Amino acid sequence: MVTKELALGPNELRLLLTLEKDGKSLFSINDAKRILKTSESSVWNVLYRLKRKGRVEEIERGKYLLIPARAGYEPSWSEAPLFLVPHLIRVYYVGFWTALNYWGMTEQVPRTIFIATTKRKRDVEYGPTKFEFVTLSKRRFFGFVHERVAGISFAVSTREKTIVDCLLYPRYCGGLEEAVKGIWNAREDLDFDKLLDFAKRIGVGVVERRLAYVLDVLQVGKRMPSRLAEGRLDHFTWLDPLGPKKALTYSREYGLAINRTKDELTSWRGH
CA torsion, points 237, 239, 131, 69, in degrees to nearest 10? Predict the structure, then answer.
């Protein structure tokens, strides 16, 4: 483990004070060059020393997070995960398992921050936290609001869009049962008309089918239109794409190959 030298040199202090004065919590190597007005090698040395002292962390290549003095000299700053998201990507919203937790729809606290975006981006790791970017088409990129926590502003999917996204990609929410639990926990707060509309708007038929089935299992919300079971269903899709590839039964009403029992989907009720 590297011993941190807490004393700051003049260039280190100049960089930190200027960044704090400018309100730049996330900065690039070019910002550091502009502020220090010295050779490139000298700038890299300043950043290297500040990293050793725990005052900056490299989040991506050439992109750094300023650790405020009030955070002490521990290598992890507790506010950083959600704070970082808007600085890592411009078009985004926090979603899936992270949004389930934010809205109190699950008690699980994922160590991964799941972020929906319209352009591919490499995942980023910050201390024990991983930022995983999920690429959605522009058609499916909707249904989010801006929230503030501890003075930090960020975009997060609404309760309804969170459920729809989780039914589309259960692997990003801890599994289908987490989405089922989310519906149950938020049943008093969900706008079921909006939920059904979002399920249709996303343009993936299996999302409507899964939602209809889950609402039936939980006996909440509104029954989905019977048009789902009309003759256009010429094949069955998996209820749970992460479940065993062996159907327990087939539902013609919902067009689903049922590969999870109702007890499995609601096992959390006993916890």
Answer: 160
User: Mapped to the 3 state alphabet, what secondary structure does the chain carry?
Assistant: CCCCCCCCCHHHHHHHHHHHHHCCCEEEHHHHHHHHCCCHHHHHHHHHHHHHCCCEEEEECCEEEECCHHHCCCCCCCCHHHHHHHHHCCCCEECHHHHHHHCCCCCCCCCEEEEEECCCCCCEEECCEEEEEEECCHHHCCCEEEEEECCEEEEEECHHHHHHHHHHCHHHCCCHHHHHHHHHHCCCCCCHHHHHHHHHHCCCHHHHHHHHHHHHHHCCCCCCCHHHHCCCCCCCEECCCCCCCCCCEEECCCCEEECCCHHHHCHHHHC
Task: Please determine, for residue 75, whether its predicted confidence score (pLDDT) is greater than 50.
Answer: no
> What pLDDT, in 10s, does the model give residues 226-250?
445 444 556 899 999 999 999 999 9
- Which residue spans of the chain are classified as CATH 1.10.10.10? 10-71
**pLDDT digit string, tens, across residues 196-225:** 999 999 999 999 999 999 999 999 986 665
| Tokens of residue 63, six digits | 């992109």
Q: What is the pLDDT of residues 98-147, one digit of tens each?
A: 999 999 999 888 889 999 999 999 998 877 788 999 999 999 999 999 98
Topology (CATH) of 10-71: Arc Repressor Mutant, subunit A (1.10.10)
